[in-house]
Design a protein that fits this description.
Layout lengths: L7 E5 L3 H12 L8 E6 L8 H12 L6 E6 L6 H15 L2 E6 L2 E3 L3 H12 L5 E5 L13 E4 L7 E4 H4 L6 H4 L4 H7 L8 H9 L6 H10 L3 E5 L4 E3 L36 H27 L1
Parallel strand pairs: 1-2, 1-4, 2-3, 6-9
Antiparallel strand pairs: 4-8, 5-10, 6-8, 7-9
Length: 297
């Protein structure tokens, strides 16, 4: 595997403490020293962010422990979407596949094993579009260490150039989907992913992942999910760009499983998909009653 290690793409803005934790966790991976890294550091827009950006630049310029580091500092503030999508466009001009991480994640010490094994195994199968390193906190009884689903998670993921080049962001076009399409996209209306598309239409947000999901959805592609999450999101909170509150995306323990058995057949595991739908519905009901209790207290 050492001769076929996928490069990493890392996006950073103004959280030096978090980016250091990400790299600390990455360096615990045996494959890290064989991995090339591309880092896209956005610049500051507000003076209050300048010091944090300077700390990040200093950290990246002294970074060691990887095969090769290509550090790109934006000359001005790009904002999340432009930095992220532009960075991936640049990356996939030179690389055929990649593992994508943001600065607020912490990974298992076997995260790179899982990602590289999956990228190698499913590279030739064009039905597989997305390798996820994160999963919901659900109990899964499965003889494999991963399964296929129809939606995605963008907290530590991987894909190939020939899939990524088909990415399309056309919110106005997607806003005309039928109720049947929307229901399917929302996993039988168990969670309103589609609302993110409408918010992009209105200009309320400017995001990448929902349109990557929509691209895969239209192509009838599949995502490989680990049975137990290999990634923890360390950035949920008031200072986050998009996810201010945990909601259903709660933090959890990281699996430290060393080896992985992947399914040979690429097909949706309908039993697990149903479990995820029920998970969404239960969380929705719980959050509803919590809001009522807060109203009366």
């Amino acid at each position: 595997m050492k001769n076929n290690i996928a490069p990493l793409v890392i996006f950073s803005f103004n959280r030096p403490n978090k980016i250091k934790k990400l790299f600390k966790s990455l360096k615990k991976n045996r494959l890290s020293k064989f991995s090339k890294i591309y880092i896209f550091q956005d610049n500051f827009k507000l003076k209050k962010d300048k010091k944090n950006i300077e700390q990040n630049v200093q950290f990246f310029n002294s970074l060691k422990g990887f095969k090769k580091v290509k550090f790109i500092l934006r000359k001005k503030n790009y904002g999340f979407y432009k930095n992220f999508y532009g960075g991936l466009n640049y990356f996939f001009k030179y690389e055929k596949r990649g593992i994508i991480l943001e600065d607020d994640l912490i990974v298992s010490k076997f995260f790179l094993n899982y990602m590289n094994m999956a990228l190698n195994k499913y590279e030739a199968n064009k039905n597989v579009w997305h390798i996820s390193g994160w999963n919901y906190d659900i109990k899964i009884q499965n003889k494999y260490d991963a399964y296929f689903g129809k939606h995605i998670s963008s907290w530590g993921w991987a894909t190939w150039r020939d899939r990524f080049v088909k990415y399309e962001k056309k919110p106005q076009k997607l806003s005309k989907w039928t109720n049947k399409q929307i229901k399917k996209f929302n996993l039988n209306n168990s969670y309103n992913f589609y609302s993110q598309i409408l918010r992009n239409c209105s200009g309320a947000i400017d995001t990448f992942a929902i349109f990557w999901y929509a691209t895969i959805f239209k192509k009838n592609g599949f995502t490989l999910f680990p049975k137990k999450s290999l990634v923890l999101n360390n950035g949920i909170g008031k200072n986050a760009t998009h996810t201010k509150k945990p909601g259903i995306f709660i933090n959890q323990k990281i699996s430290q499983k060393k080896s992985f058995i992947f399914p040979d057949e690429v097909t949706e595991d309908l039993i697990i998909s149903k479990k995820i739908e029920n998970y969404f519905k239960k969380k929705k009901i719980k959050n509803y009653f919590l809001r009522i209790l807060r109203f009366f207290n």
